Amino acid sequence: MMSIGRKTAIAGVALAAGALLLTACTPDESDNASPGTGGDGKKVELRVATFPPGADKAAYEAFAVQEKQFEDLNPDIDIIGVEYEWTGPTFAVQLAGGSLPDVFTVPFTDTKTLLENGQLMDVTDEMNELGYSDKFNPIILDGVTGTDGHYYGFPRQAYAMGLHYNRALFEQAGLDPNSPPTTWDEVRAAAKTISEKTGKAGYAQMAINNTGGWQLTATTIARGGRTQTDNGDGTYTSTINNPGTKAALQFLHDLRFVDDSFGSKVDLDWGTINQEFAAGNIGMYTSGSDVYTALVRDFGMDSAQYGLTVVPLDGPDAGTLGGGDVAVVSPTVDDATKAAAVKWIDWYYMQKLMNEDAAVADAKALSDAGQAVGTPVLPVLSRELYEQSLTWIEPYINVPRDQMTPFTDNIWDQTPVGEPKGKTQEIYALLDPVVQSVLTDESADIDALLTKADADAQALLDQ
Description:
The two termini are 20 Å apart. The longest helix is centred in the last third of the chain and has 20 residues, at 335-354. Helix 2 runs antiparallel to helix 14 (356-368), helix 9 packs across helix 10 (243-258) and helix 9 crosses helix 17. By secondary structure, the chain is of the alpha+beta class. The strands form three sheets. Strands 3, 4, 7, 8, 9 and 10 form a six-stranded mixed sheet that branches. The chain has a two-stranded parallel sheet with strand order 1-2. The model is unreliable at 1-37 (pLDDT under 50). It has two domains: 26-159 and 323-401, Periplasmic binding protein-like II (D-Maltodextrin-Binding Protein, domain 2, 3-Layer(aba) Sandwich); 160-320 and 412-462, Periplasmic binding protein-like II (D-Maltodextrin-Binding Protein, domain 2). The protein has helices spanning 8-11, 57-73, 88-97, 108-116, 124-130, 138-141, 167-172, 184-198, 211-222, 243-258, 270-278, 292-297, 335-354, 356-368, 383-392, 405-408, 424-440, 446-462, and strands spanning 44-49, 77-82, 103-107, 154-166, 228-230, 236-238, 284-288, 306-310, 320-329, 416-417.
């Protein structure tokens, strides 16, 4: 639930740029175990999330290098990689069934609910010992802070919404890939041209598995609307029925039924829209700015075809939806496994954000395996340190950042807006059918759909 008011708040807390040498925490030694081992002195087996099913061989080769590096530093810990992909419907099943890894990641939108339900491990002492608690942007840290003031995860990555586009389709349609659309009207016009000239979907948008509600919220915010108001007293008011949401849905209707530029696939989610885009079947779509890594790693996209720009903004209150994820520990693990888990999170996720040696080692391992280095993200610490980290890893950056300059040059001028806090995923799921209705029924009554969605969302918030 990334909630940042203005672009200057991205930098958040003041943080001296430079390397911070961090020491890993140690577990409770009441059982006389050595750090990272059980009481019998055997290695601790730590199950950690890796990649979604279908990731390419090079991704696992890079992970194997990093796994060995970590195990060389921590010979009493045995890392076991587990394929993992967060989706709204499946995560709850995995959580209830106890099939999640010991270390996994969850979106900001889920952390509050999970920690309130006692489903995340308290890592307050470990975060304080590592020196992170006063380094995070405090607004981002709020997402993993319980009502007891304790911390229940490590924010590890943030993103802003971007407009991703296929440069090859732009060229085939006679459009300039170096001058992507800057308004929603231009997006619509470009989508129509791409569809007419190439036969591909000019524009597509996610619609199922909670992603329909997620992207509808993103495009609402980009048009100056908000789907929820935080009343500041622990309660929330649904505001789904607003001009921004209506405009976002009317846009989808017009692409689908007036321009015939949306394409025939109206049941896409995060994985399937990435697959279609990577295959060259979609001209443009909105998603997090960090998705390039998955496009090349998991879906085999040709990097020469990729382009990224900022989402168009329309209206005085328009902003860019921000988000991200958090590295967390299963609440069911024992003390030795918890200690090993925090060591892994510190080494694998965190140190590369603030330690030059760690950043370079991580970038080299990824680059040697042909994995993406330098994908645009928003910093969870400070903008200054993030930009310094790019200088640390500059020799290893292999993403086509010159094809992303419409985003990297302009994102700091946009206002990041956090995801709605109340019943976030449940309301995203509630909005999926609204998006699907507009995409499948030419005569769908948008006003009636929004009126009902607003009432249903408020009922959820009032529970």
